[in-house]
Amino acid sequence: IAGITQAPTSQILAAGRRMTLRCTQDMRHNAMYWYRQDLGLGLRLIHYSNTAGTTGKGEVPDGYSVSRANTDDFPLTLASAVPSQTSVYFCASSASTGAGANVLTFGAGSRLTVL
Amino acid sequence: GQNIDQPTEMTATEGAIVQINCTYQTSGFNGLFWYQQHAGEAPTFLSYNVLDGLEEKGRFSSFLSRSKGYSYLLLKELQMKDSASYLCAVMDSNYQLIWGAGTKLIIKP
């Protein structure tokens, strides 16, 4: 089934630990995104990649890093987790960027709790 | 700053009609999106408006007025499965999506 796969689905993590959230898509979409979703707030963009080999910072990039070695994979790394990074993380992709009906396809999300 | 406003929660009755409003203030405008998100699930695309007017898609319609910075999502013949959060998002002049916090719609029998 075409779509986006995220792993893990859920994780409890001690503060200070390193954590990588995995994201893989099989739609050959050029653009990929990482969002966090917190209660009472809109989705906030962490990092994005318009095409393989390039990445950019979103609205809330501090404490996170990404890489885009190929079209399909876009992992998100928390180098040293802090409690404020407790959130639900969504990976998304789109066929293109820029104007037009740039529809996002989302993964099922990764619920991360940092204690 | 950029801002998207939508009601936090709405309640409606099965079979009825409900209108979810979204107002926005953004630096530029390159389209407005509505997404549906069931509890514990991923957002899924519902509609896209870039020109003023009404876009109809089955039981769902979306309206846009660019001069007023206003959109609404109209859901007709409500079903219990329509209970979800509805997210409004605007693409700004940099082609970045600005998201509202979402409207939780509760459908009662």
Protein model, in words:
The complex is a heterodimer of chains A (115) and B (109). Chain A is mainly β and 115 residues long. In chain A, 0% of the residues lie in helices and 44% in strands. In chain A, the strands form two sheets. In chain A, strands 2, 4, 5, 6, 9, 10 and 11 form a seven-stranded mixed beta sheet that branches. A four-stranded antiparallel beta sheet of chain A has the order 1-3-8-7, with no helix packed on it. Helix content of chain B is 0%, strand content 57%. Chain B is mainly beta. In chain B, 36% of the residues are buried. At the A-B interface, strand 10 of A face strand 5, strand 9 and strand 10 of B.
Helix and strand topology:
The complex is a heterodimer of chains A (115) and B (109).
Chain A: E1 4-7, E2 10-13, E3 19-25, E4 31-37, E5 44-49, E6 56-57, E7 64-66, E8 76-78, E9 87-94, E10 105-106, E11 110-114
Parallel strand pairs in A: 2-11
Antiparallel strand pairs in A: 1-3, 3-8, 4-5, 4-9, 5-6, 7-8, 9-10, 9-11
Chain B: E1 3-5, E2 9-13, E3 18-25, E4 32-37, E5 44-49, E6 53-57, E7 60-65, E8 70-75, E9 84-91, E10 97-99, E11 103-108
Parallel strand pairs in B: 2-11
Antiparallel strand pairs in B: 1-3, 3-8, 4-5, 4-9, 6-7, 7-8, 9-10, 9-11
Please summarize what this structure is.
Chain A has 115 residues and is an all-beta fold. Chain A has strands spanning 4-7, 10-13, 19-25, 31-37, 44-49, 56-57, 64-66, 76-78, 87-94, 105-106, 110-114. Chain B is an all-beta fold and 109 residues long.
Features:
heterodimer, A: 115 residues, mainly beta, 4-stranded antiparallel beta sheet, B: 109 residues, 6-stranded mixed beta sheet, 5-stranded antiparallel beta sheet, 57% strand, globular
Oligomer: heterodimer
Radius of gyration of chain B: 13 Å
Total strands of chain A: the figure is 11
Distance between the termini of chain A: 35 Å
CA-to-CA gap between the ends of chain B?
40 Å
Q: What structural class do the secondary elements of chain B suggest?
A: mainly beta
Helical content band of chain B: under 10%
What percent of the residues of chain A sit in helical stretches (DSSP H or I)? Answer: under 10%
SSE string of chain B: EEEEEEEEEEE
Biggest pleated sheet of chain B = 6 strands, mixed
The whole-angstrom Rg of chain A is 13 Å
- Put simply, the count of helices of chain B is 0
The stretches of 5 or more residues of chain B where confidence is low (pLDDT under 50) are none
Biggest interface found: A-B, 21 and 24 residues
What class would the helix/strand composition of chain A place it in?
mainly beta
Could you give a short account of the major beta sheet of chain A?
Answer: 7 strands, mixed
- SSE order of chain A in H/E notation? EEEEEEEEEEE
Averaged pLDDT of chain B: 96
User: Any idea what the shape of chain A is?
Assistant: globular
The amount of beta strand of chain B, in percent, is: over 45%
Strand content of chain A: 35-45%
